[in-house]
Amino acid sequence: MEVSRSVPSWLVHTFPPFVTSRIPSLKKNVGFSAPLTVHNTAIVQRTRGLFGLAGNKRSTGDGDDDEYIKPAYAPDFFYTESFTASNRISAFFLSVGLAVGLAALLYVPPLRWIVRRVVMQPGDGPKDEELERGRLHAENISISSPLPNSDKLVLVRSTMDGKGDPGYALTAVMVSECALGSFHPGKSSPLLRGEVGC
């Protein structure tokens, strides 16, 4: 497997006007492209490729009885992300508006000058009241490949909710949780503590 093949070219160069997903047992989701979708997809696919390279063969030392281990990701692994919209029309206009706005910022210098004057400057940040008013809701939907000797799929839906500004207040919380999970996986994982049932 080549790492460069882990990201299909058609996925990197697209900017769909809206994203629709029909998942069994879930309502139809309509959304629009997130600004960092292409970058995040490339990062996830690169990680998949690196795990695939590392997991293809683990040498035991002498080269004759190398141990093959199962890849971390399924061969038909696919990743995408989007913002949620209320319907197809709003998703279309939000997506096109985002694309036109980003293009205008890239190619119209007077517009960049105006935006620099309006947005927060380095060193400035939101007031405490604004930090407290913010909130975050993220939803992850994962679907497995067909189970062995079956056509059944396993669907896992997880949500993350946070109170506070996602860009400032919640970032510190999420980074701290990641650090705790890395250093003490047995102590910090609700699944391993038995607090989460499957």
Core attributes:
single chain, 198 residues, alpha+beta, 2 domains, three-stranded antiparallel β-sheet, two-stranded antiparallel sheet, 8 helices, 5 strands, disordered N terminus, disordered C terminus, Saccharopine dehydrogenase, transmembrane, membrane
The portion of residues forming beta strands comes to 5-15%
Flag low-confidence runs.
1-15, 190-198
Output mean pLDDT: 72
Radius of gyration: 21 Å
- Oligomeric form: single chain
What would you call the structural class?
A: alpha+beta
The domain count comes to: 2
Describe what you observe in this structure:
- By secondary structure, the protein is an alpha+beta fold.
- It has two domains: 110 residues, no CATH class; 75 residues, no CATH class.
- It is built from eight helices and five strands.
- The chain is extended, with a radius of gyration of 21 Å.
- The two termini are 33 Å apart.
Summary, kept brief:
By secondary structure, the protein is of the alpha+beta class. The protein has helices at residues 9-12, 37-56, 88-107, 109-118, 128-133, 169-183, 185-188, 190-193; strands at residues 19-21, 29-33, 82-84, 135-143, 155-163. It starts with 8 loop residues before the first helix and ends in a 5-residue tail after the last helix.
Write the layout of secondary structure elements.
Blueprint (H helix, E strand, L loop, with lengths): L8 H4 L6 E3 L7 E5 L3 H20 L25 E3 L3 H20 L1 H10 L9 H6 L1 E9 L11 E9 L5 H15 L1 H4 L1 H4 L5
Antiparallel strand pairs: 1-2, 2-3, 4-5
